[in-house]
Give the backbone structure.
Amino acid sequence: MKANELRKKYIDFFVSKGHKEISGKSLIPENDPTVLFTTAGMHPLVPYLMGEPHPAGVRLTDVQKCIRTQDIESVGDPTHNTFFEMLGNWSLGDYFKDDALKMSYEFLTSPDYLGLDVNTLSVTVFAGDEDAPADDEAYEIWKGLGIPEERIYRLPKEDNWWGPAGATGPCGPDSEMFIDTGKEACGSDCRPGCSCGKYFEIWNDVFMQYNKKEDGTFELMDRKCVDTGMGIGRTIAMLQGKTSVYDTELFTPLLDKIGELTGKKYGDNEEEDNSFRIIADHAKASTMIMGDPQGVKPSNLGQGYILRRLIRRAVRHGKKLGIEGAFLGKLSEIVIEMYRDIYTELKGNRDLIMSEFSIEEAQFNSTLKKGEHEFEKLLPNLLKNPKKIIPGRMAFKLYDTYGFPFELTEELASEHGMTVDRDGFEEAFKKHQELSKKGSEQAFKGGLADDSVMSTRYHTATHLLHEALKTVLGDHVAQKGSNINSDRLRFDFSHPEKMTDDEIQKVEKMVNKAIEDKLAISMKTMTVEEAKEIGARALFSGKYDEKVKVYFIGDFSIEVCGGPHVNNTEELGTFKIKKEQSSSRGVRRIKAVLR
């Protein structure tokens, strides 16, 4: 089964079960200060899982683009990807475990859908602990479906519990489905979730039935939700009998092109294969990030920094394989063609994507020259060292500050009769990685849906700011991302040059006038087509008949948004712009506060 067929079968199946197909959201989270990218299928739906009514109803299904950045340095092995797609189905207070598990089982085993051999299927359920009892309900449902007890595993919280998005909130046990690949067990304790590769995870049903309170205890909720996910890349790899997602049609055209550019063949040399995979993955992820409806450009901030890191890592590995000159645009063309009918925004943003790849590759080649120059400056002192060893921390500084690859430092060292302390480099690199991962994990656990009073006020203020910027600067202004917490708002928008003091004052004055006018805020649910007809502002990427929420702030602004909002602008206080600066090429950033 190919990826396109899996997408269609999954959506068709859940639509036949009463689910409404909704459009996946942007890779850039809306108004979420806790993560840089949409990291999971459930991410855009958190407000609805927490109680906000969804305009499409209580049964939903979708395909969501995701970017996961915690494991960038692991990309290159056969399993990790930066960009991936999640298939999801959702129950918002409607059906629960019985229906969810039966639908999962039917889709996996029915010959009309995936047709998997039930004898290869193993499942896991929550074993229970001091916080919550064992999930006997899920256990009995699986037994009733014919899964023998020896293939139903009771596992602890670290394996079968989905925590709240923040420190508190909805959470609960999950049940995961695995396919036995036929590999020999690695030992007597081998089980689903083991890293040996015998069991391949294919699906996860999360049962949000508890609320974690501030005192750390858990209480059962009246409104229970189901949140499920299936990764397209991993699933088709398993269905096609492949051991790696890179062996499927989602990557083979890219690997073939890299082979054409290098004169090498994927599969001949494992070290070179690692570089093939890194280039293919990073070229695809970078294309998706720049081609997104709220796409960002390479920069030294936030999402732009991650994008720059992906591009530069791909270029470094291109050089390792002997590629000279710019090449990522050639791979991006393949990505755009592969996904042109699924993510149509890629076609519209093609010229921008090609331009940014060209600029970034040229800049990085210049950066590499700077790194070589820096090395030459350090050389006289390095040569004085009788051991002729370049300290690892120095090699890491060249890598971290100048993007200078360790392998190039080794080459230059060798030319001067020196070696590099690889262990010291790896130790410094590991420390950096741990700090980065810790920050990323803290961000993800820090609360995906901050609905505090102040965050709600700032959310509403971004609508006023957006409208004021369009009025003062022109219709070319479009939102390119926002980041809101309870202390301030940050708003990125398209504009080619620095705003003048007079323009900043006009925008500030216009927002405060809207606040002083005490404008009432109302919401109506309508189709995307209807929202377009009344002139609502939005990045329209959904289907024309899909239901959306449209917020009206008096007669000042009309905008499609998921909320939350205050009832009247008088609740906002006084609006003050603290800083206006560049975010990336052609994008400006405003930081503002309410007093």
Observations:
- The chain has 18 helices and 18 strands.
